[in-house]
Amino acid sequence: MLFRYCMFYTGSTLSILPESFYRAHFSNFLLEPTKIKLKSYDGSIILPVGVVNVMVTYNNRSDSCSFLVVQSGQRPLIGRDLIQHFQINIVFGSAYEQQHTLSSYSPEKIAENIVNEFSELFDGTLGKYKYGKISLKVKDNVQPKFCRPRPIPYAFRKGVDHELEKLENLGVISKIETSQWGTPLVPVLKPDNTVRVCSDYKVTLNKYLEDVEHPVPRIEDIFNKLQGGQLFSKLDFSHAYNQLEVDEETSIMLAWSTHKGIFKVNRLPFGTKPACQIFQREVDKTLQGCEGVACLLDDIVITGRSMDEHVHNLRTVLVKLKSAGFKLNKNKCKFFQDGLKFLGHIIDKEGLRKDPSKIDAILKAPIPKNVSEVKAFVGMINYHGRFIKNLSIILAPLYDLLKKNTPFQWSKECDRSFQKLKKIITSDQILVHFNPDLEIVLECDASECGVGACLMHKMPNGELKPISFASRILTKAERRYATIQKEALAIFFGCKKFFEYLMGHKFTIRSDHKPLLGLFGENQGLP
């Protein structure tokens, strides 16, 4: 978005946008209320409609700047605030006409400025959520359980002592004399050879805790929120769960029994049964109403259909996180990337791709020697099921090995399935983002042992591009169906599987089984 022929007005302390200009170009930017009053040259009072924050670039320098939005006027006024801020040299009497852009052509510079603007979020300290303390509830008639401290290996003891001291200084834990609850520690060696202190709540508290019901978003819904994005940013919380304070009663229930004594836990620790749902709930509340944003636990991805929209969405998220008291890990945050690794996939403006690091594990998998290894391989493949046409049909021989009371015997059919999947998984298949403005096509097919469906978009050039694949194997009863019944079942399966995409939209069903037309009457030309 370009500012053409802005008027530089040294008579104005602040910079101003006419409301008509704001509505035409920046209506997607948040207009916030303001108490500022302006006085015109004739002494009359002007009440601004509001204030809007946008990114301004001048001479390769990008900053977030405030503009007052007023009802009158035709052209943006650059006041003394921005003239001084950007050190603009104005030669009076010249035909000075300069283009200014709110869309940056230097994403790195914009990212640097945003990090500086929100430096408090990235200062490396532990955040403290401001919107209430967390309370965990135990079921009725539960007696407290205390486990004696477990012996700490001598090689880990120095690291554990250092970590306990650090957590105590941060206020995450506090020393207490006694407690009826006590959970033992489990030290874990991190890749950098430092020690992470974990607590084994499965032997004490978890079985007695009441469930916290809050939906963790599905992968499909997460990626659908990001469709249409051009660049992508990812924010990572610093010590995510520890940013949530717990109440006094909960801190006692969460107490640790250690070789250095008993510590109550003042922040929500990782490892408690409802921790994921609680953290997701609080972040969802914080980011409610944000556009172009998807969040799963401690990862937030932001995008936009343009750089201006992206910056606006990103700033909106950062403002809300700052207001809530959260802190971010600067080293793990990424800004304005062409593509991001997220949830085992790579997302970019074209769609979804498989993460090569995940595929490498599949390619290196040896031939399974028992049922457990078959389950592990099938699990890795199924995670990428949306990329593979008729996956369940290809997997059928391996599924047979997982049936109860079936002796493990690696057959030629199993080996063919195994090798075929390794070959298919290396394809550079891209799944396009769902776009309700494009034509939708559902292609369905059936075989002797399974049914499959592919949801596709028909692009403006007529090309069909997949959005997602789905399949399942047939039950014993379904395998006895006539061919036409299996083909009809494939359509039913596809419509049910992709119901959320299809409902409310016109779409075309493609099938290679023409006899299906007869099910809808001889006078019907299409199903």
Automatic annotation (TrEMBL):
InterPro entries: DNA/RNA_pol_sf (IPR043502), Peptidase_aspartic_dom_sf (IPR021109), Retrovirus_Pol_polyprotein (IPR050951), Rev_trsase/Diguanyl_cyclase (IPR043128), RT_dom (IPR000477), RT_RNaseH_2 (IPR041577)
Signal peptide from the UniProt entry: none
Domain Reverse transcriptase: 189-347
Keyword Nucleotidyltransferase applies: yes
EC numbers, comma separated: 2.7.7.49
Keywords: Endonuclease, Hydrolase, Multifunctional enzyme, Nuclease, Nucleotidyltransferase, RNA-directed DNA polymerase, Transferase
GO molecular function: endonuclease activity; RNA-directed DNA polymerase activity
Principal EC category: transferase
Positions of the Reverse transcriptase/retrotransposon-derived protein RNase H-like domain: 410-509
Classification via SUPFAM superfamilies: Acid proteases, DNA/RNA polymerases
Record flagged with keyword Hydrolase: yes
Designated name of the protein: RNA-directed DNA polymerase
Organism: Lygus hesperus (Western plant bug)
